[in-house]
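Sample entry was shown:

___
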Amino acid sequence: MEPHVKKPIPVESASALIDEKIKELADWRGKTFAKVRKIIHEADPEIVEEWKWMGTPVFSHGGIVCTGETYKNVVKLTFAKGAALPDPAGLFNSSLDGNVRRAIDIHEGEKVNEPALKALIRAAVALNLEGKSKPRPRRASSGQAS
């Protein structure tokens, strides 16, 4: 392995790092992040937790579903393909002008709409898996003699 290539963090370690991050946030952000993490796993028990980009919790199944970030005034869930997801409950309230991603900012004291969040998680997983199951179209080879 080349020295500049980073090894992926094992799933068990990623989950432990997320546990530690929640513990370090000894305020409403830690409680909120723990709650959304639980909702994500309830929505899809096959979600895999990863730790990427020098400290960002990532929830994946067939590709990235969402990231979970904490800031001073907000807990943010960023959906990698959020612009392609139905959001009838209007949970997306951030990064609305992007072409691909959409985010949910949860502020202190706000209640999380669990059924709507679970629906978004399931839709994101379905979109990821849909992309994996389609056979790629073959390119017509050029330069064949007729």
